[in-house]
Amino acid sequence: MDVAGTYDDMMAVYEGREGAAVVFQPRIKHWHDVNLSAGTLPERYQGMYLDEIYRDLGVTPREVWGLGGPASEFAGYLALQAREGDDVEVWVKRTHGLFYETEPHDFLITEYRTPKGTIQQVQRLTEHGTSLYNAEYYLKDLRDIEVYKHILQERSYQWDRLRFEWGRKRFGGVIPLRVQLQRSPLLWLMVGTMGFQRTVTMLWRHPEEMAELLRLLEADHYKQIEACGGKAAVELSFGDNMHQDMCPPPYFKRYVIPFYRRAMPKIHGQGMYATSHWDGFVKQLLPLVGETGLDGLECVTPLPQGDVTPEEMRAGMDGMFLRDGIPAVMFCPWMSLEDLEGHVRRMLDLFPPRLILGVSDLLPANADIERIRLVSEIVREFNESR
Q1: For an engineered disulfide with 365, which of 9, 34, 60, 148 has Cβ 3.0 to 4.6 Å away?
Q2: What's the count of helices (H) and strands (E) in the chain, helices before strands?
Q3: How far apart are CA 21 and CA 123, in angstroms?
Q4: What are the CA-CA distances from residue 155 to residues 47, 50, 114, 161, 228 (Å)?
């Protein structure tokens, strides 16, 4: 695939213009980072940087804008720099093993120390050290919430100029810049700072305190959006990890839709587009997504990995653009090439001109990377036939 005209083709998707070529922009960073760490990169790609692998595969680069990151030379998407208040200290410690473990693992412990008290998060590094997941969340009770409220009130954001310039010089003419924002407030709590079970319990037991916390989280989003004002960003992406089992329709209607309806005018007023990351089961939520005002969805995952058909995705999104759409399992060796090819052609029939094709959610570490090349060839033939 020739990526020379990718920037204009992606802008055509954002704008809903007819006739633009389909862009194939898969996320392969996870595959690359795990195999690089494990020493299992295919011989063809050994010694290559991630952007060189993209070039070799003939597909549009992604997750390459920022310099630096765990086990990788690239950080992923451009993120804002959070500046904590003068009376907030952040302490980070990496340790091997915790007192309750019979088999020690690597952990990252982060503490916020403030005049209101201290909150702590413990994250466990995955096997190859390429990602993290929570073993302990910051917010455990009302006292922690009071500390966190102080942190949020004092926090500000600024544009990461150095990483922006680094990425602009390398990819500014190829891919429009997207900036990664925090999850929407409810998902920020469920996935990021409080955990699902505790969030649901606290909403029931302490509705007033949680309502105030959600208002502060929303105000924090407005700080993030304002920090992007006047900058070169085209897309602001909320990393929601939306799943109907965490956020069922009643929660979605009460907490998510109102937030987005208030946030969208601020984003659109800056001339930018907004997307949300929907990589879970979403069949019950797709009929509601149009009420959010979002411009597009990322990583909606069809059957057999997700719970929706491509036709249901198109009907639910109704005019929104889709990024991704190929179930990640179809890139694994045990799935037939015929199924992969048939699904890709189905997506190409349904979604253009509102499609940036990719992997939902990301390329697995044990995937056959050459299947990316196969999809690239199918997309190239499709574009040439139009």
Answers
A1: 34
A2: 13, 18
A3: 42
A4: 41, 33, 12, 19, 16
pLDDT greater at residue 4 or residue 100: 100
**Residues ≥6 apart with Cβ < 8 Å to 134:** 121, 122, 123, 124, 192, 195
Q: What is d(CA 272, CA 63) in angstroms, rounded to the nearest whole number?
A: 19
The predicted structure's pLDDT at residue 100:
62
Domains contained in the chain, CATH given: 6-84+155-385 (3.20.20.210), 86-138 (no CATH)
Cβ-contact 33, 17 below 8 angstroms:
no
Range name among 8-12, 57-61, 77-81, 352-356 with the lowest pLDDT average: 77-81
Alpha-carbon span 129 to 134, nearest angstrom: 14
Region 27-54 average pLDDT:
94
Of the candidates 338, 344, 333, 334, the residue with the CA atom closest to the CA atom of residue 375: 344
Task: Kindly give the pairing relationship between strand 296-298 and strand 235-238.
Answer: unpaired
pTM: 0.93
Q: Which residues of 87-125 are buried (b: 16+ CB within 10 A; e: fewer)?
A: ebeeeeeeeeeeeeeeeeeebbbeebebebeebebbbbb
With 0-12 CB in 10 A as exposed, 13-18 as middle and 19+ as buried, what is 353?
A: middle
